[in-house]
């Protein structure tokens, strides 16, 4: 899905993440996640070899 999305749509995401990491905001917002032993966010990778 990301491959079909334009750069103008995707670019703000990594920029916002970089700012949140640099300022510590991400840690503040998601501190509870750091205590988790595991996290299932529903992503799956399918690799086909023909």
Structure, described:
The protein is mostly helical and 50 residues long. The chain is 50% helix and 0% strand. The protein is built from four helices and no strands. The protein has helices at residues 7-10, 12-23, 25-29, 31-34. The protein is flat. The model has no long low-confidence stretch (mean pLDDT 87).
Task: Report how far apart the termini are.
Answer: 22 Å
Number of strands: 0
Structural class: mainly alpha
Radius of gyration: 15 Å
Task: Write down the overall mean pLDDT.
Answer: 87
Helices, by number, come to 4
Brief characterization of the structure:
The chain is mainly alpha-helical and 50 residues long. 50% of the residues lie in helices and 0% in strands. It has helices at 7-10, 12-23, 25-29, 31-34.
List the helices and strands and how they pair.
Layout: H1 7-10, H2 12-23, H3 25-29, H4 31-34
For this entry, give a set of tags:
mainly alpha; 50 residues
């Amino acid at each position: 899905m990301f491959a079909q999305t334009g750069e103008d749509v995707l670019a703000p995401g990594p920029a916002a993440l970089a700012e949140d990491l640099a300022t510590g905001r991400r840690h503040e917002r998601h501190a509870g996640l750091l205590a988790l032993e595991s996290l299932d966010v529903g992503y799956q990778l399918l690799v086909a070899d023909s």
